[in-house]
Fold:
Amino acid sequence: MTFAEIQPIFPVSNMATSVAHYRALGFDVESHHGPEAYAFATRGHIRLHLAEVYRPKLKPKRNMSAAYVYLDDADALYAEWSASGAGGTDIAPTDTDYGLREGAHLDDDANLIRYGSPLEPN
Structure:
């Protein structure tokens, strides 16, 4: 048995708002309208599922949905996302003691995307 990939599922309270948010972050978003609102947000080799959850069931302060993205330039992604007007919260990258420069983005439903790039060797 071989695992092929993983695609996190992010609960969202308003599909239209979330689709606009992830498009502003540079994702291609494909919406599916059926009995439940669902979408796929794709950028490069990254794919997130967005699943609309009835607001009282979604508690952003308790949301534990997260994904980690490895990339080549955390500072460039931070600059792009913080200037995108997408909303949410952008956390500037900092150097870690485990060899990565890490930043983060939190959408309005408290879905967390942490990202990191390797530190340049000294």
User: Anything to note?
Assistant: DSSP finds two helices and eight strands in the chain.
